[in-house]
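Section 3.1: Structural characterization of target chains.
Under the original work plan, the team committed to producing a structural model for every single-chain target entering the pipeline before any wet-lab resources were allocated. The record below documents one such target. The sequence was received from the expression subgroup and is listed exactly as submitted; it comprises 185 residues.
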Amino acid sequence: MLGLLALGGCHELGHVGGPGSYGGSQDEIAGEIAHIDSRAREIEILADDGRPRRVRYDGQTRVVYRQREYAVSNLEPGDYVAVRTATDRQGRLYADSIMVRESVQERGGGRAGRFDRLEGTVEYVDQRRGSFELRDRRDRLVFVSLPFNAPRAARERFNRLRPGDFVRLEGRFVDQNRFELESFV
């Protein structure tokens, strides 16, 4: 009995203070991503209890998949996640960290359709988040992200990228200045 009480106390201590950059209580939401609104910086999650939950995110939100960090822009509807949340002073939920338990591709989903092509010069590489910036032929700066389930050849080529490299890519434009890489051409 005493052991159970001690374990319960340790569990509770893990939630006090924590990274809590928002100063409120912390909790975890597990479920499937239903929608990502990058403009409002919100993720809608269909929680395991069947309720939709909206969680805000910011530049400090960590996304982890298979012990590697990614940008929030790598998340897709259909990904199954566990979101560690904190509450701000207005009672809104913020994502402190997001652990991807299963990508939409692993779950048998994924996007179908044509690929876009992009080419240009690498400006900056962020190995930790699996992304880089590319200056295209129209002198536009495009943020390129490597998806969770990138093929081995794409991951290996990404790991060798350096500023100044000229690359040709296939993938999809998420918006005008964001591109999700599928493969190097």
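DSSP finds two helices and twelve strands in the chain.
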